[in-house]
């Protein structure tokens, strides 16, 4: 498994600013190396805050040469303000020159997938496969993750079928303990297809789960523990989130 790197910042604003700078540098390096980049975005306060910081200082990112995916999505109608893609567009994507064909949003809960999150999950798995060069899932340059206080990442919650999934890369969640209950999510096997996985976490309420995950708790108990990158797993924390770690 990849090495775990822990980076602690004095406060949430510094954390998000430094994570955004690292994101820009990583995307630019990938584009210089291969001519393109592939990233997975996340929602939540730190995830959207990071995108806002990238909007402020986008560096030399070529927005026409990047594929953008999502780690999970609330299964809600198009344009619902609670959807991660709607928030990401407001924070960043509506303000840069992205290629719309390379922004791969998860299906919405209306139209052909209305009331059928399982079909939506299958459809998104097909989207991943179509951009994977003959494999089932692309090798993402970065998979961004936030984390809940109980250790959930994407919509993979402790002691659920979704976090136990070992074969499918995208699944529907119909009983999320955090509203809304219906979601579509990448699984841990999909997360592990990223070259680097970044967990950007802030706050005292997350400290116990951060410490347990880094110590190697079973993923079924602390899902974040199972989020590992091919080359690197980076925990980007503020001092509050890092407060339970050994010195």
TrEMBL record:
Is Transferase a UniProt keyword of this protein? no
Q: Coiled-coil segments, which residues?
A: none
| CDD domains the record matches | 6PGL (cd01400)
By its UniProt entry, which InterPro entries does this protein fall under?
6-phosphogluconolactonase_DevB, 6PGL, Glc/Gal-6P_isomerase, NagB/RpiA_transferase-like
Molecular function (GO) terms for this protein are: 6-phosphogluconolactonase activity
Report the EC code(s) recorded for this entry.
Answer: 3.1.1.31
In what pathway does it function? Carbohydrate degradation; pentose phosphate pathway; D-ribulose 5-phosphate from D-glucose 6-phosphate (oxidative stage): step 2/3
Q: Does the keyword Hydrolase apply?
A: yes
* Matching Gene3D superfamilies: 3.40.50.1360
| Any one GO biological process | pentose-phosphate shunt
Q: Which reaction does it catalyse?
A: 6-phospho-D-glucono-1,5-lactone + H2O = 6-phospho-D-gluconate + H(+)
Q: Which domain of life is it from?
A: Bacteria
Q: Which residues form the Glucosamine/galactosamine-6-phosphate isomerase domain?
A: 10-229
- PANTHER family in the cross-refs: 6-PHOSPHOGLUCONOLACTONASE (PTHR11054:SF0)
Which family, according to the similarity comment?
Answer: Belongs to the glucosamine/galactosamine-6-phosphate isomerase family. 6-phosphogluconolactonase subfamily.
Protein name, UniProt field: 6-phosphogluconolactonase
């Amino acid at each position: 498994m990849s090495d775990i790197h822990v980076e602690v910042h004095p406060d949430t604003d510094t954390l998000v600013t430094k994570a955004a700078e690292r994101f820009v540098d990583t995307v630019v390096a990938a584009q210089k190396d291969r001519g393109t980049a592939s990233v997975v975005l996340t929602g939540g306060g730190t995830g959207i805050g990071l995108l806002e910081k990238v909007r402020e200082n986008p560096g030399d990112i070529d927005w026409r040469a990047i594929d953008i995916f999502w780690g999970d999505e609330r299964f809600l109608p198009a344009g619902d303000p609670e959807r991660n893609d709607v928030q990401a567009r407001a924070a960043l994507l509506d303000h840069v020159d992205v290629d719309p064909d390379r922004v791969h949003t998860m299906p919405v809960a209306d139209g052909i997938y209305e009331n059928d999150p399982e079909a939506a999950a299958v459809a998104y798995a097909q989207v991943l496969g179509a951009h994977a060069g003959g494999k089932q899932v692309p090798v993402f340059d970065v998979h961004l993750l936030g984390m809940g206080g109980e250790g959930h990442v994407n919509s993979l919650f402790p002691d659920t079928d979704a976090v136990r999934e070992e074969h499918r890369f995208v699944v529907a969640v119909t009983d999320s303990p955090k509203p809304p209950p219906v979601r579509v999510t990448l699984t841990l096997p999909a997360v592990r297809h990223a070259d680097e996985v970044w967990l950007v976490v802030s706050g005292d309420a997350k400290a116990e789960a951060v410490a347990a995950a880094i110590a190697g708790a079973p993923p079924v108990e602390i899902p974040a523990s199972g989020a590992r990158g091919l080359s690197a797993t980076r925990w980007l924390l503020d001092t509050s989130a890092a407060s339970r770690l050994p010195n």
